């Protein structure tokens, strides 16, 4: 017996209310963290999520927030499953998410996905400054404030900004 | 699967987890002490990736143990095992990490060299492990490989920068090579559980990684104007639980809270 007369699309819309605690401009759908939603026959609602990075400290909080959100909506049996394969890539971020990132001051991943390879001293890809739109920027550090980001600075407006690492 | 082969799979998984946890812990000691801010952030981010990888392996080992009712310490299992039990409550002799990862950090040159030698090893190991017939190990390897590729690139660049840098940085890299070289052979000396897991198609026999590893290290050393060392006597034992004195000190710090205040949470 299916107690909840509800479809996946509605649940996706609920999950849009769950923010990424590390990048609060984005919700978990924008980030591409939610991989699937399964409505089991025994009324169990299963959400499959995937981490951006193995050590992403936000994952436990995200799982908890999804659970709280769904409990408040009246779901009794909630299962949150973490799946590692296929591995997350910046390509899974939604276009809407990329737009919000820019607005928030973080440069979104370039449309052509950058996959990390082991080529040394590679030229930095061109990254547009989210503050003044200049392409005249350079990378300051391969690593940044969260596992998924690196640090750039704009040579025109001189503002530093985060950019998603190749992944 | 027989009990014997599950036990070896558990040991193999713990070995992968311990390597990542202990190196992650060592790197985290740089937090607030890095030579410049950007590199402080870099080495601690690498820590975070490694500790994340270790969590994935520990969680899987715990699942296998709970399914098979195997205790990490042998004998009967009391209560369920978790990733925390495995990281915080096993003793020195139960840890299966290689000696290389537990050595003190030394200076920046030694930390960089160790990271490079180990990332190169992990890079080829995870490439193989992605094809494991054990679906969970394959998934963890696939996920981790992306992170390790980034570590390898970063640490290779630093080996070149320091080796081919000033006289001082070059000298320090030579000292680092001298201090670390006797520990690299253990990476490719297969323990019983590695051979068994490889035989079953779930693991990787590390001896097959050695040639590729040497080739990569030679290439980077040449670029860094560093000599590739002669063969020296190799220390082993870590994979079987026989560690240097340094691991005990790491565990003292790492496990203190759970030992003093069991089951405490924060």
Helix content of chain A: 10-25%
Number of helices of chain B: 10
What proportion of the residues of chain B form beta strands (DSSP E)? under 5%
Order the strands across the largest sheet of chain A as they lie in space.
Answer: 4-7-6-5
Indicate the low-confidence ranges of chain A by residue numbers. Answer: none
* Number of DSSP strand runs of chain A: 7
* Termini gap of chain B: 38 Å
Measured between the Cα atoms of the first and last residue of chain A, the distance is 42 Å
Count of separate DSSP helical elements of chain A: 4
Q: Which stretches of chain B are poorly predicted, pLDDT < 50 over at least 5 residues? A: none
Overall description:
Chain A is α/β, with parallel strands linked by helices and 167 residues long. Chain A is built from 4 helices and 7 strands. In chain A, strands 4-7-6-5 form a 4-stranded mixed β-sheet. A 3-stranded mixed β-sheet of chain A has the order 1-2-3. Chain B is mostly helical and 266 residues long. The longest helix of chain B has 32 residues, at 37-68. Chain B is globular. The mean pLDDT of chain B is 95. Chains A and B meet through loops of A and helix 2 and helix 6 of B.
Quick rundown:
The complex is a heterodimer of chains A (about 170) and B (about 270). Chain A is of the alpha/beta class and about 170 residues long.
Layout of strands and helices, then pairs:
The complex is a heterodimer of chains A (167) and B (266).
Chain A (H helix, E strand, L loop, with lengths): L7 H8 L12 H4 L2 E6 L5 E5 L8 H15 L5 E5 L12 H10 L1 E2 L29 E5 L7 E6 L5 E5 L3
Parallel strand pairs in A: 2-3, 4-7
Antiparallel strand pairs in A: 1-2, 5-6, 6-7
Chain B lengths: L2 H26 L8 H32 L14 H6 L10 H4 L5 H22 L5 H29 L3 H14 L11 H8 L10 H14 L21 H16 L6
Helix pairs in contact in B: 1-2, 1-8, 2-6, 5-6, 5-7, 5-9
List key phrases describing it.
heterodimer; A: 167 residues; alpha/beta; 3-stranded mixed beta sheet; 4 helices; 7 strands; 20% strand; B: mainly alpha; 64% helix
